[in-house]
Amino acid sequence: MKTLITNGRLVLDERIEQGEVLIEDGRIAAVGVHLGAVADHVIDAAGCYVLPGLIDFHVHLDDQIGACYLADTYASGSRVAIQNGITTLCSFVTQGPQETLFQALNKARHKAEGTTHADLLWHLTPTRFEAADWVEMETLVASGYRTFKFYTTYKAAGIFADQAQLDEIFRRLGPLGARFLVHCEDDEVMASVDAERLDLDKAHTHGRLRPGMAELLAVEGLLDQARYRKVPLHVVHISTVGAAEAVSNAKGTVDVTCETCPQYLWLDDTWLAREDGHRWLCSPPLRGDRERFRALAMKGSFDFLATDHCAFRRADKDAWDHRDVRTAANGIGGLGALPHLAWRLWEGDPELAAQHLAYRLSRNPARRAGIDDRKGSIRVGLDADLVILDPNGPERPLVSSLAEVHETYPGFTSKLAFRHVLLRGESVVVDGKLRAPEAPHGILLQPQP
Asked: CA separation (Å) from 217 to 53, 194, 212, 213?
């Protein structure tokens, strides 16, 4: 089966050109101006950009977070993703207190296999470090699980890693090829906040409980450790100007990348001051000074954009005790909004916007995830994950999740239209609609351990 995409603006690694893409057996077979190929199926991309399939490097799906189970399953989360051009999702597996990391991973595989509409990769969070646990981690790295996530906070949840523990992790797993994602908020700084002097019944207090200085200090400490141990570091969901600048300044001496999320670009702390402000609780919190933060994003300070999609059902989000904001479900959705809000940064120059989408929502995350031999670019031999994007479609509201959730971006609209989304050569979305919702086409990119 051969498919030919014609008349599109191809967003390649270093340039945009009018051209054609030939797909054969699920992979890109040729890229050129006039291929002269005979195909079984032709897709006319006139007026559209042809992008590599997008990647959300940071999503939480089908898992228990605190007292609540997340609203989005692998099925519903991947459906809103693929309908918006996201062909690969990177989610998380966290080792529970009574299970091995293998058991936690197998549980996630059981839930995801045969249900995901996008291809799926997992970052792993080990929480136990006995001899047998180290053997499991080493085995998983060798079999293709290269990204591990750790937290410098959340002691009560049992996922906190202190400086000494992180140093041992870097020392032991770094030489094996592991890459490290870290949620950076300094636990000691947050513990020093005198919560009793705050209005804990107000959602805006969330920002004072988790001050920006906690993020900056944690980032600076991690950069020093990564520099010393010479390991690849990825800082997730940066929310402050200071932390973004610290990462940018360290890039000459540290193998470091970072991300931010749409909520930190387009929402600010005034959303927390609303009567229903608890619906926008996430960590790190929404903050002020967003114009300056967006300027950093526009000049390329963030290697890629990801959502930290962590959507809770409406009832669960609203079920806090109204006396202490710390009892509210902590996380928001964003999967369906990601490409739209990324495009919005550069929308005055569609060519530039298309290049940034390809670079920051595909090429860069594929590299950090270690799947750039399959994903992330329009190159011969790679998976034919392709997005045919019309920047001038009908204006419509953003939909962050298809589950029963509060919309994260009410009133936000977009004209981006996903005319075709191809996953490994299969046209799975046409004009924004999933062609076969009952037959998920996604695969698990990592092997059974």
From this structure: 35, 19, 9, 6
Q: Using CB atoms within 10 A of its CB, is residue 299 exposed (0-12), middle (13-18) or buried (19+)?
A: exposed
The sign of the dihedral angle between the CA atoms of 161, 66, 78, 317 is: negative
pLDDT at 105: 97
* Statement: the pTM of the whole predicted model exceeds 0.90: yes
Which neighbouring-strand residues pair with 233?
Answer: 180, 256
CA distances from 382 to 30, 131, 313 (A): 10, 38, 37
Gap between the terminal Cα atoms of the chain:
33
Q: What secondary structure letter does DSSP report for 286? A: P
Q: Distances in Å between the alpha carbon of 292 and those of 84, 103, 281, 295, 401? A: 28, 44, 22, 5, 28
Cα torsion angle, 113, 119, 121, 122, sign: negative
Q: Which residues, at least 6 apart from 94, have a Cβ–Cβ distance to it below 8 Å?
A: 63, 104, 125, 127, 159
Range list of β-strands (E), 105-146: 119-125
Which of 150, 361, 154 is CA-nearest to residue 235? 150
Query: Residue 1: pLDDT band by 50, 70, 90 thresholds?
Result: confident
Q: How far apart are the C-alpha atoms of 173 and 170, rounded to whole Å?
A: 6
The contacts of residue 418 (CB under 8 Å, 6+ apart) are: 83, 84, 85, 387, 388, 389, 390, 429, 431, 432
Instruction: Give the tens place of pLDDT for each residue, 352-375.
Output: 999 999 999 999 999 999 999 999
